[in-house]
Amino acid sequence: MSEQADVEPFCIEVADWAVAEALVMPVREAVFVCEQGVPPEIERDGMDALSRHAIARDAHGRVVGTGRLLLDGHIGRMAVSAPARGAGVGGAVLGALVEEARRRRMCEVVLNAQVHALDFYSRHGFEAFGEVFMEAGIEHRAMRRVLPAVQSGDRAGKR
C-alpha cells in the first residue's frame, strides 16, 4: 500500500542550485533514475548550477515536486513524487517556472516533453512543434509557449 502525500495545501519556491540541490535531487532520482531508468550520469548535468529551480513542498514540508528553468528559457527536469501526482503539483511547478521566465523578461519558454505528458503541457498553454525524438531512451517532443510582454508597471507575481 502506497502512502498518499498530504499535498493540500502545498507551496512553491524558486531558488538557485545552492539551495535546491539537496532538496530536489531525491525526487529527481526517484522519478527519473528509479522509475524511468534514466542513467544517473545523464540525469545530473552542469546546467543545474546555472538554472532556477522550482521546489514544491507538501503541508508537512516534504519536497514533492521540482522543475528547472535554464537561462535560455528551457524548462526541464519536471518531476513529481508518485504519491503527490494528480494533486496539481506539476501544474503549480510549471506555473512558477513560467512566471520566473516572465519575470526575467523571456519572450518564450520551451521544453522537451515526454510524449505521454503532451496533454499536460498543452493544458498549460504549450504547443508542440517538430517531430518525436528519443532522449534518454524515452520518446519526447519539443513544445513552446510564447509569453506576453511584461509591461513596465507589472510586478513579479501580479496577474
Provide an overview of this structure.
The protein has 159 residues and is an alpha+beta fold. It is 28% helix and 31% strand. It is built from four helices and seven strands. The protein has helices at residues 17-35, 40-43, 89-103, 118-123, and strands at residues 11-15, 52-57, 63-69, 74-80, 108-114, 127-135, 138-146. A seven-stranded mixed beta sheet has the order 1-2-3-4-5-7-6, with helices on both faces. Strand 4 (74-80), helix 3 (89-103) and strand 5 form a beta-alpha-beta unit. The radius of gyration is 15 Å and the shape is globular. The relative contact order is 0.16.
In short:
28% of the residues lie in helices and 31% in strands. With 159 residues, it is an alpha+beta fold.
